[in-house]
Specification:
single chain; alpha/beta; DHBP synthase; Rossmann fold; nine-stranded mixed beta sheet; five-stranded parallel beta sheet; binds adenosine monophosphate; binds magnesium ion
Length: about 350
């Protein structure tokens, strides 16, 4: 497997990667959200290899990445006016739109659905690779299914080493959480996965937007609309428990829980913030960032979960992070990773 670091300006490397994808192969590449595992979205056989490499259930559709708006018109059967408004406002960027698919898109890419998810990423390497690959790159996150999404090329190598021919290494990604998904085939557009682009930001551009009720509550109560959101996607190996409430109470509760874990011989770790970390007494305490810096919290989350996996931690206690903007996205990923175990204090 060839791993190429910081190839932003290296047109040759990107051209080679594009040739691999055109020939029906797979390449992992950086985007501004997380690393993606790309294949030619219009080639059903190539797309099948993504599912095999990741161990991804075949009913879980892929996002098609494009590099120019006119390519959306080719893979969509019809486009609502909101698609143009949203693309003018947020593309290239961390927003995925779901529209009716045209015949060009094979069912392997859409997991058998008549709709297709489309995004134009802003990362220059991703855009250059899409152009070199023929314009349509199906790319889910480049992790093994069930592991946290990769925010570093090393994470991709940890999960997929030996299963894919090439990783383009662009260093740490900027956002660290997957794109916002908005379904434009609904009468009122609906957010199927929260992300960096919030409900308020979308509503400023296209008016009323709803949030899929299936992603907010315990997933057991209502089925999410995006097939992928029903899986326990972001699962660390350790048991993860969130503790929510007023800061002093949260610190006290987590100290009590880690002390009890220690008494039963379980290795406990704590996810705190710059403000609280010095008050925890567990052996392993990690700050996710300053509570006021929600972008840092989003960027660090998956790496922390992966690091804890390597340290063979048995149980993780985390503060909750319902911050003003990206908070809904952060909490959606954390709650799923925790299997919805929350202690309110
Ligand atoms: P990933 O690329 O791994 O971040 O996952 C893509 C997400 O988009 C999954 O949760 C999919 O279920 C969802 N998705 C992709 N295409 C569609 C579609 N046509 N309708 C609903 N959800 C979709
Ligand atoms: Mg994924």
């Amino acid at each position: 497997m060839e791993k190429i670091r910081n190839c932003l300006l290296d047109a040759d490397k990107i051209r080679t990667a594009g040739e691999i994808i055109r020939a029906g192969g797979l390449v992992a590449f950086p985007t501004e959200t997380v690393y993606g595992l790309g294949a030619d979205a219009l080639n059903g056989c190539a797309v099948k290899k993504i599912y095999e490499a990741k161990g991804r259930p075949s009913d879980n559709p892929l996002i098609v990445h494009i590099a120019r708006f006119s390519d959306l018109e080719e893979i969509a059967a019809k486009l609502p006016p909101s698609a143009k408004c949203l693309s003018d406002a947020f593309w290239p960027g961390p927003l995925t739109m779901i529209v009716e698919k045209s015949e060009k898109v094979p069912y392997e890419t859409t997991g058998g659905m008549d709709t297709v998810a489309v995004r134009m990423p802003s990362h220059p390497t991703a855009l250059a690779l899409i152009r070199e690959s023929g314009g349509f790159v199906a790319a889910p996150s480049a992790n093994a299914s069930g592991r946290p999404s990769p925010t570093l090329a090393e994470h991709v190598a940890d999960d997929l080493c030996g299963r894919i021919p090439m990783i383009l290494d662009g260093g740490q990604v900027g956002i660290g959480l997957e794109s916002t998904i908005v379904d434009l085939t609904e009468e009122v557009p609906m957010i199927l996965r929260p992300g960096y682009i919030t409900q308020e930001m979308l509503e400023e551009v296209i008016g009323e937007v709803r949030v899929d009720p299936g992603i907010l509550a315990d997933a057991g109560m209502q089925r999410p609309k995006a097939p992928g959101m029903k899986y326990k996607h972001y699962a660390p190996r350790a048991d993860l428990v969130l503790v929510d409430g007023e800061e002093t109470h949260v610190v006290e509760k987590i100290n009590e829980l880690t002390r009890r874990a220690g008494m039963t011989g379980r290795r406990a770790a704590v996810i705190g913030t710059d403000e609280t970390c010095s008050r925890y007494r567990a052996n392993v305490v990690v700050s996710i960032g300053a509570r006021s810096d929600e972008e840092a919290i989003a960027r660090h989350l998956y790496k922390i979960l992966r690091d804890f996996d390597e340290m063979e931690i048995d149980v993780i206690y985390s503060e909750s992070f319902a911050t003003p903007k990206i908070g809904q996205a952060i909490m959606n990923r954390l709650l799923k990773a925790a299997g919805y175990q929350v202690i309110h204090v």
